[in-house]
């Protein structure tokens, strides 16, 4: 795994935006996998800026989001569809019909079929070129909570207690946080061609160290990223502060500059 440490949140976001923008320029009809949460907001702001000021063109881009709360309609202010419209899609020239977020209103009996179709859509679009990920306080990626199969696919999941607590800051009370979600699986995520894992802040430091340097375990589902050959973790200094091999990551970063090549 490439580990890039930036001095702060803004620099982390810009580094991620550079990688995404390079892909959009090189492959205008690329497929992006997108995440919600506080972490990628700065990345999306930078992409909106690049669109407005530099003409970064999203007209042929397709996107798939990782997850959606089950039970929230797309126009609910806490739904992830709403979040994506507000934070990214409404600020760039992407065609809304090419943006896919799981639908949290699918009837229970149709969920399996719906999730299969979501995966089919990703395949038919040619697969995800770059998947953006945050990491939850419990080590989850998407809503793959501790104990999720490392081969899991898109499905209905129950949220972990810690996730409900963590996400209650966006709701009036903890009771209002949905208990279920539709989420891409770890198996789905690992099929992306390239992955960017973002984390910032002291409170992510311990879980980031477990995910990157700990054993691969379904208890920290982000640790499954160690199985993927093309992951770049972009961290701010606080989130990187519990990593043991920080000197090595910095050495590799310097080496990459010398040979002008990414070293995974
Ligand atoms: P956050 O959430 O970006 O709001 O910290 C990350 C996640 O739960 O994946």
Describe the structure.
It is a single chain. Strands 1-10-9-6-2-3-5 form a 7-stranded parallel beta sheet. It has a 3-stranded antiparallel beta sheet with strand order 4-8-7. The protein has 8 helices and 10 strands. The mean pLDDT is 98. The radius of gyration is 17 Å and the shape is globular. The chain is 34% helix and 16% strand. Helix 7 (205-213) links the parallel strand 9 (194-199) and strand 10 (231-236). Helix 1 crosses helix 2 (41-54). The chain has 264 residues and is of the alpha/beta class.
The helix-and-strand class reads alpha/beta
Main beta sheet, described?
Answer: 7 strands, parallel
Strand segment count: 10
- The whole-number mean of residue pLDDT values reads 98
Distinct ligand kinds: 2-phosphoglycolic acid
User: How big is the Rg?
Assistant: 17 Å
Unreliable stretches (pLDDT < 50, length at least 5) are none
Strand arrangement across the biggest beta sheet: 1-10-9-6-2-3-5
Q: How many helices in DSSP terms?
A: 8
Order of helices and strands: EHEHEEHEHEEHEHEHEH
Distance between the termini: 5 Å
Shape: globular
Determine the fraction of residues in helical runs and give it as a percent range.
25-40%
What amount of the residues lies in strands? 15-25%
